[in-house]
Design goal:
0% helix, elongated, disordered N terminus, Thrombin, subunit H, mainly beta, 126 residues
């Protein structure tokens, strides 16, 4: 590779987890997503053995399952090119939940409040 950046698609550096399933294999592997763009991602995992060209299904937070193929492999990192573009910003958002927000309201407890700061006028000089 040259020192010049040849990609025209912006990528987001982030740290989140995803599940990857290799073609014709029922086992899902947990990987770290190191960067994500609308067209693909870089993943890192020690418990998964992939080769360039493998077809994979990736389960991404807030996006769902995305099909793609392994574009490159280097040590325990590999790149996946998605078959369709996704909204990569959606993966950064908090998890979608159908829980009523009012249920998350909790009354404040002051039982574990920090003590007030000391009064410097009452300190004894040594």
């Amino acid at each position: 590779m040259t020192g010049m950046e040849t990609r025209s698609v912006a990528r987001d550096s982030l740290f989140l987890l995803a599940n990857v399933q290799i073609e014709r294999n029922s086992e899902r592997h947990r990987v770290r997503v190191r960067n994500l763009s609308d067209g693909g991602m870089m993943a890192e995992g020690t418990n998964i053995k992939v080769q360039r060209g493998h077809r994979v299904a990736v389960e991404l937070r807030n996006i769902g399952e995305v099909m793609g193929s392994v574009a490159w492999v280097q040590d325990n990192r590999f790149g996946i090119a998605f078959d369709i573009e996704v909204d990569s910003q959606q993966a950064r958002r908090p998890l979608n939940t159908d829980v009523d927000p009012a249920l998350g309201m909790v009354e404040r407890s002051w039982a574990h409040r920090a003590p007030p700061p000391p009064n410097l006028d009452t300190f004894r000089k040594v």
